[in-house]
């Protein structure tokens, strides 16, 4: 794609973030952990925005129950690995974006390798056990994390900067959505709202434009359209932060 075509492609976005902001996006490397409702939509927005490299991580296959909210996939994809389908669809959306697929779960044994070299990490997981692994990795590696979660009509988003904000462990134990057992019932458009906010947070972190949700937890009530912002603060006895963020 020529430079003129690239300018045309992102012209509406460059009008907001400037040429320098677009260049920062083109050099950025983002890891999206989970390709379900949140991750499939976040990855589409980031590919569309022109992020230079996307690492996409998921071990699951597509089921028919995914289709009402995971709009990256189609009925013909049922039974296929999410990562494999995502590669094709994201490249079709924007062939200039480099895709690094990881067809595996994020676990202690691979977390540091998967996240090494990325600039921002997106939490698009659907369970808190997986988030514990992710949280330890981002705190240890000091990687910014954009956290999102959805349950029913409700969603939440926060941006975590290790050493500056509460980590995910502190956030979950302070105030959070109820944890899902087995599966999470969700309304598709509410997932879309949360995914859009997560993608926006990533763009803000990369470009340095705007104020990210640092030390804040945004709570979205899609049933009554009430949005609350809760202020967060670090605690001294967090077992994760105290382990990995010791003063040198």
TrEMBL record:
InterPro entries: ThiF/MoeB/HesA (IPR045886), ThiF_NAD_FAD-bd (IPR000594), Ubiquitin-activating_enz (IPR035985). CDD domains: ThiF_MoeB_HesA_family (cd00757). Residues 10-240 form the THIF-type NAD/FAD binding fold domain. GO terms for molecular function: nucleotidyltransferase activity; thiosulfate-cyanide sulfurtransferase activity; ubiquitin-like modifier activating enzyme activity. It comes from the Archaea. GO terms for cellular component: cytoplasm. Belongs to the HesA/MoeB/ThiF family. PANTHER family: ADENYLYLTRANSFERASE AND SULFURTRANSFERASE MOCS3, UBIQUITIN-ACTIVATING ENZYME E1. This is Thiazole biosynthesis protein ThiF.
